Amino acid sequence: MRGWLHLPAQATGPLPAIVEYVGYGGGRGLPHERLLWAAAGYAHLVMDTRGQGSAWSVGDTPDPDGAGPAHPGYVTRGILDPHTYYYRRVFTDAVRAVEAVRAHPAVDPGRVALVGRSQGAGIAIGAAALVDDLLAVVPDVPFLCDFRRAVSIVDTLPYAEIARYLKVHRDHVEPVFRTLSYFDGAVLGRRATAPALFSVALMDQTCPPSTVFAGYHHYGAADKDIVVYPYNDHESGEAFHDLAKLRWLAPRLSRPGSAAA
Questions:
Q1: Mean pLDDT, the chain, integer
Q2: Hey, what CATH topology would domain 3-254 get?
Q3: Of 172, 181, 234, 242, which is the active-site residue?
Q4: What is the pTM for the complete model shown?
Q5: Which of 10, 38, 150, 169 could, after both became Cys, cross-link 6 (CB 3.0–4.6 A)?
Q6: Which of 57, 118, 199, 236 is catalytic?
């Protein structure tokens, strides 16, 4: 796996860290593209998403383990079995990214938060369910939540990849949704305990609001909130929401966390 680690200039002492996961089709990009979190004083690791990075930002990590027929894209790769499914590898990468940043000498391993939007938000929820002692999770307009509903109400990509696959493989409906249930943020997120700030856009044609709310309501932590953007599509809050995230994260990452292994 590859990624970029950004550190604030002239930083001293172990820093709180942000691990960021990227939206669908994108990669880690170029080093100067994501400087917000380092500018705010945090160590910032942005994880490359294996096999992606040719749609809107540059990626540099291959996925050599694709299995079985799939619709173009990533959502149906290996979809007939949870063991071969594409997002099993991605969620494993996401956990290893947290382990990597916690092992870095510039980082306080007890003060780590996860952020992401769209696919990156879905990955953040999955990682939050699998990693202990996180201080916060910030999923913006998450993808990978309530698959069965999403596929039934929108015909936009990426969810449409599943519908188009099933349009051809008419006998695969139950195996497909069984596999997806293992990676559904509205299911897996029940295991998460870190405080969370979600966002949802009520005119979102990519990640329908009802699926985002499913992820939010089933998220396991009692300390959670959601910011609603009534008139936005999948772009959601953009720079306005960056300010909301900075304000929400500051008090949570400023206090020492429990020492992580």
A1: 95
A2: Rossmann fold (3.40.50)
A3: 234
A4: 0.96
A5: 38
A6: 118
